[in-house]
Specification:
Elements lengths: L5 H5 L5 E7 L4 E7 L6 E4 L2 H22 L22 H13 L4 H10 L1
Antiparallel strand pairs: 1-2, 2-3
Helix pairs in contact: 3-4
Length: 117
């Protein structure tokens, strides 16, 4: 898409994270956008934090667009292959193979089961 404007970016499914914070000053909600480094806000309630973050996103994106900076986009599901390589100590590899055999499943099936729990 050649014309990526503010509306385009605001419609993307960015990863919004909102968490409660309790510190010495007060209790509040802290909100961030995972893909937009430094784009954050807060609010007294979850809803306020979300609305405040959306306003912060508008400002963040407007500045990036104004200066022609690169704006990261969310990674879609089709960007993941479903596989990754993992190096483990030989002793752990042996233990996993033995436990998979005891369950009469492949090492891959056993690890997938353990990781999904």
């Amino acid at each position: 898409m050649a014309n990526k404007d503010l509306a385009y970016y605001l419609a993307l499914p960015y990863t919004i994270q909102i968490r409660p914070v309790k510190d010495e000053s007060r209790d509040y909600f802290f909100a961030t956008v995972a893909e937009l480094d430094g784009c954050q806000s807060n609010g007294d309630t979850f809803a306020e934090a979300y609305e405040s973050l959306r306003e912060a996103m508008v400002g963040y994106l407007e500045v990036k667009l104004e200066y022609g900076d690169v704006i990261p986009e969310p990674i879609g599901e089709d960007e993941y292959s479903g596989k990754f390589n993992l190096r483990v100590p030989k002793s752990l590899h042996r233990l996993l193979v033995e436990r998979a055999a005891a369950e009469s499943v492949s090492l891959n099936q056993y690890c997938l089961y353990k990781l999904s729990r």
